[in-house]
Amino acid sequence: METFRFQPGETPVLLSIPHVGTMIPPDIAATMTEHGQAQPDVDRHLDRLYHFAPALGIGFLTALCSRYVVDLNRDPDGLVAQPGLDPTEICPLTTFDRAPIYQAGQEPEQVEIERRVGAYWRPYHDQLHNELRALRDRFGVAVLFDAHSVRSRVPRFFDGTLPDFNLGTGDGSSAAQPLVARLMNVLSASERYSAALNGRMRGGFIIRSYGKPEENIHAIQLELTQSTYMDEDAPYRFRPDLAAEVKPGLERLMSAVVEWSWQKATGQRRAAYL
Predict the structure, then answer these.
(1) Which of 6, 113, 165, 190 could form a disulfide with 195 if both were Cys (CB 3.0 to 4.6 A apart)?
(2) Lowest mean pLDDT segment, chosen from 107-111, 197-201, 259-263
(3) Residue 84: which pLDDT band, with cuts at 50, 70 and 90?
(4) Does pLDDT of 85 surpass 70?
(5) Backbone angles phi, psi at 65, to 5 degrees
(6) What pLDDT is stored for residue 200 in this prediction?
(7) CATH number of the domain that 67 lies in?
(8) End-to-end CA distance of the chain
(9) Strand pairing partners for 238?
């Protein structure tokens, strides 16, 4: 079964969208509650919002399976990426609102968790790892942009309302400071949208695992509040009117990532692309 979609690009930048998938295999869905089957915590419509990325030469990797099957941004060994939060498990048992995902007695046991890691988690991460290494070997540098979205208010994880754009770099460990400063300059130029760097969303397992600036692999996570482009409540409609307003800022942000990556690139194929 296909578990992700991948399209290579022609720049040193890779866009990853690990929580956009909604597919739940029927045997797993049969064990879930109505809350679980409704999937309220999926990063819906992000692939539609970032559809401009290939035109910038950016490759993309998107998940097809739901984060309720297995969470691609969690450590399979159970380590917590961002201390201080109330994290969900690699195979989540409750929604962000603490509603049960599984019917009583149907929660996945360790053998099932390991099966899902092998069947759904591992292929995504193998592709992610291999592509970042291939980009770095080809261009001399690779940049991972890990795209997420979240409801603007989730009391389980943070107080109050999130800023619109939440940039995370693992508290400065996953990307070069000049790149981060350039992106924050782009975000701070907006009069409409608020932004924060390593605030309440500082980055999850993916950027902390793959961001290795000392090896010329940089990783950035963006948590975009869903109120900027969709209805946060069911049925979670995409809002073209809102998306039209926020998309230019996203394009400027991604263009800045591409520009910075080309400035750092040393691979011979750069000239052929330009």
Answers:
(1) 165
(2) 197-201
(3) low
(4) no
(5) -80, 150
(6) 85
(7) 3.40.630.40
(8) 37
(9) 230
Q: For residue 102, what are the β-bridge partners?
A: 32
Task: Please give the share of the chain, as a percent, with pLDDT higher than 70.
Answer: 94
And the tokens for 231? 């209805």
Domain that holds residue 166: 4-273
Q: The tokens of 216 are what?
A: 């010329």
* Number of domains making up the chain: 1
Contact between 211 and 177 under an 8 Å Cβ cutoff? The reply is no
Q: Quote the CA–CA distance of 137 and 174 in Å, as a whole number.
A: 19
Digit-coded pLDDT (tens) for 21-43: 999 999 999 999 999 999 999 99
Alpha-helix residue ranges (DSSP H) falling in the chain: 26-29, 34-38, 46-49, 110-116, 122-139, 177-188, 205-210, 240-264, 269-273
User: Token pair for residue 230?
Assistant: 């969709």
Q: 3-state class of 156 per DSSP?
A: coil
CB 59 within 8 A of CB 6: yes
* Residue-wise DSSP of 248-271: HHHHHHHHHHHHHHHHH---THHH
Mean pLDDT score of the chain, rounded to an integer?
94
